[in-house]
Design a protein that fits this description.
heterodimer, A: 532 residues, mainly alpha, B: 45 residues, 1 helix
Chain lengths: 532, 45
């Protein structure tokens, strides 16, 4: 394995002397530079966000009115499936891995990631996987409308599109495992002298914990889809009831991965918010140690609650009670985190730049998503709301207002450091307010649809649901268009933005702001920074 | 940790630790994957 450590031969050189870098396509195909790879992750993630977004708009266009108007039901099912898969594995996860690549070496004072070549490979596995997911739409026998959860027996009976999807999930999982191993190894071994674990910025802590979650849970998903593959082609009967297998076993295995996956997405988002809120409150993060312990508690608990996704499969009451209580327990460390963010702002010298607005949007809406999660954790309520639009509303508050808003906050926060240029603050605020309003127009009404009994994953619905669906579809198109504004803001920042200062935000105190110029040099911390 | 950061010994130690950490994590991921499939394969027999 190739490793990157501080090179004594470079002692005494300044950053500027190391700006030599490859040019042309090879810079990107063969890159082992954490900043280049981080940039590629972020652009890949945004492209997938647009692909998944178009799929979401097809879904909402069909649901604008009752009846079947635009797409066939099978295609609708395929859209719900691949919208979920692409957004989770292609957009949100790579976005935060992009943040990790860019920021972790700079925040701990390391020259690069521990395994730079593996870092390159873990990124370049993603485009083929994405192509497989998109190619599955055109597979003979039609696309696989099995849902992003890929439940048996649908998956054991679907056409060749399912094989492409399984292969794509394998590759995505492999990429995630490589990325996680790299992150853990980097953080544990390459911190600058004096940068103890409890002095690290919270973003690094959240990624350290997330990476462990990934290493422990991704192989479980890989196992589940491998068993599906062998059921389909090699005569095994893991999930085939006719052959003595158990389809519910698949659900247990999938959600043993799937619930930690929720936190794999949410915990790095917590890390970003824990950097942004103190910077714009001009105060240190309140309760740093309790934030670390709360994050670790959430991660551990996330492995004990998987069956709350499947209360209705017919498990014993004792099982339901265990998973209900374990799930409600997660509210405690999550509450600690929300309390600490609010306490950080308390009596702070607050300003409301775009990234702080997104962080506050995250705080309000993610907490709302957390509350509806508590509602759903209660067995008798969940039995009523299972597979309704209430669930769709709940997890979009967690995934979009949680993860996506946090990603936006992070991008606006670090864009000056990455590009050396400032974005347009007015347009950024427009992006925030449009996203906030249209997000709520899209998803708040879905709570009411779910409470009224509208099931998810259907292309048609009863007339009584018409108005709320029309409102939700209008919101979705507004939200989608707002993201084109974001693309414009980023491109304008990169091309014509004003020059950013080294410490663009006066409250930011991590190493990338205090020790590195803007834009961050191609090679940074070739010698470890002096730390107190 | 000390601030004597650039001596060869320290570099060697870090490289060795990086390799060990990477190997342990790979082993952990691979064993979870194979344990799971083997477990359900033998259970079904």
């Amino acid at each position: 394995m190739s490793t990157a450590t501080h090179d004594p031969a470079h002692d005494g050189h300044t950053h500027d002397e190391h700006e030599h870098k490859p040019y042309g396509m090879m810079r990107w195909f063969g890159s082992t530079n954490h900043k280049d790879i981080g940039t590629m992750y972020l652009w890949f993630s945004f492209s997938m966000f647009l692909v998944g977004g178009v799929m979401a708009l097809i879904i909402r266009a069909e649901l604008f009115q009752p009846g079947l108007q635009i797409v066939r039901p099978e295609f609708f099912n395929s859209m719900t499936t691949y919208h979920g898969l692409i957004m989770v594995f292609g957009a949100i996860m790579p976005a935060f891995v992009g943040f990790a690549n860019w920021l972790i070496p700079m925040q701990i004072g390391a020259p690069d990631m521990a395994f730079p070549r593996m870092n390159n490979l873990s990124f370049w596995l993603l485009p083929p996987a994405a192509m497989l997911l998109i190619a599955a739409q055109f597979a003979p026998g039609g696309c696989a409308g099995v849902g992003w959860t890929m439940y048996a027996p649908l998956t054991t009976q679907a056409g060749p599109a399912m094989d492409l999807t399984i292969f794509a999930v394998h590759i995505l999982g492999m990429s995630s495992i490589m990325g996680s191993i790299n992150i853990i190894t980097t953080i544990l071994n390459m911190r600058a002298p004096g940068m103890t674990l409890m002095k690290m910025p919270l973003f690094c802590w959240t990624w350290l914990i997330t990476a462990y979650l990934l290493v422990a849970s991704m192989p479980v998903l890989a196992g589940a889809v491998t068993m599906t593959l062998t059921d389909r082609h090699f005569g095994t009967n893991f999930f085939n009831a006719a052959g003595g297998g158990d389809p519910v076993l698949y659900q247990h295995i999938f959600w043993f991965f799937g619930h930690p996956e929720v936190y794999i997405i949410a915990i790095p988002a917590f890390g970003v918010i824990s950097q942004v809120i103190p910077a714009f409150s001009r105060k240190p993060l309140f309760g740093y140690a309790s934030m670390v312990y709360a994050t670790a508690s959430i991660a551990i608990l996330s492995f004990m609650v998987w069956a709350h996704h499947m209360y209705t499969v017919g498990m014993p009451v004792e099982g339901q009670l265990f998973f209900m209580y374990a799930t409600t327990l997660i509210a405690i460390p999550t509450g600690v985190k929300v309390f600490n963010w609010v306490a950080t702002m308390w009596k702070g010298s607050l300003t409301f730049e775009t990234q702080m607005l997104f962080a506050l949007g995250f705080l309000f809406l993610f907490t709302l998503g957390g509350f509806t999660g508590l509602v759903l954790s209660i067995v008798p309520v969940d039995v009523q709301l299972h597979d309704t639009y209430y669930v769709v509303a709940h997890f979009h508050y967690v995934m979009v207002a949680g993860a996506l808003f946090s990603a936006f906050a992070g991008i606006y926060f670090w864009l000056p450091k990455w590009t050396g240029r400032m974005y347009n603050e007015t347009l950024g605020k427009w992006h925030f307010w449009l996203s906030l309003i249209f997000f709520n127009v899209t998803f708040f009404v879905q709570h009411f649809l779910g409470l009224a009994g509208m099931p998810r994953r259907i292309p048609d619905y009863a007339l009584q649901f018409t108005e709320f669906n029309a409102i939700s579809s209008i919101g979705a198109f507004g939200f989608g268009l707002s993201q084109l504004l974001f693309l414009y803001i980023v491109i304008k920042c990169i091309t014509t933005g004003e020059k950013a200062e080294q410490k663009q935000w006066e409250g930011a105190d991590s190493l990338e702001w205090t020790h590195l110029p803007s834009p961050a040099p191609y090679h940074s911390f070739t010698t470890p920074p002096p730390l107190k | 940790m000390t601030n004597e950061v650039n001596d060869d010994e320290r570099q060697k130690k870090i490289k060795r630790n990086i390799r060990i950490t990477g190997a342990v994590l790979w082993l952990m991921a691979a064993s979870i994957f194979f344990y799971m499939i083997a477990k359900y394969y033998w259970l079904a027999k």
